[in-house]
Amino acid sequence: MACIDMQQRLAELREKWGKTGMPELKMRIGLCTGPAVVGNMGSKNRMDYTMMGDTVNIAARLEGVNKVCGTYTMIADATYQNAGDWIRPGSWMPSGWWEKQSRSKFTKCSDTRLTSMTG
């Protein structure tokens, strides 16, 4: 998976850059599999390349949760299910977190699996 390659390459660069006195650089990644709207959006006067949709929002939230969990790459269960044998299960999301069921309905999760990879 590209995220693993990116984290490994950044680890190599951190080591190289550390020898030159550059500050340590780390990145957090959130992955979610599903539909999204991606492309140039806007008007004739102002256009921007962007992404929209629930899948994108979940990935963004996973990226942020990495800081709380002390990880650098976190994937949603949908991505884990689609990845097959590529990924080993990592950590378990603590109970008390909330899972989005639809645009307006949330249900409380207990032991919802999320895979995380430290880097």
Overview of this protein structure:
Helices cover about 35% and strands about 25% of the residues. The protein is an alpha+beta fold. It has one domain (about 30-115). Strands 1-4-7 form a 3-stranded mixed beta sheet. Strands 2-3 form a two-stranded antiparallel sheet. A hairpin with a 5-residue loop joins strand 5 and strand 6 (about 105-110). Residues about 90-119 have low confidence and may be disordered.
Secondary structure topology:
Elements: H1 2-19, E1 29-31, E2 37-42, E3 47-52, H2 54-69, E4 73-75, H3 77-83, E5 98-100, E6 106-108, E7 115-117
Parallel strand pairs: 1-4
Antiparallel strand pairs: 2-3, 4-7, 5-6
Unreliable spans? 91-119
Secondary-structure element sequence? HEEEHEHEEE
Into which percentage range does the β-strand content fall?
A: 15-25%
How do the strands line up in the largest sheet? 1-4-7
Quick overview of this protein structure:
The protein has 119 residues and is an alpha+beta fold. The chain is built from three helices and seven strands; from the N terminus they run αβββαβαβββ.
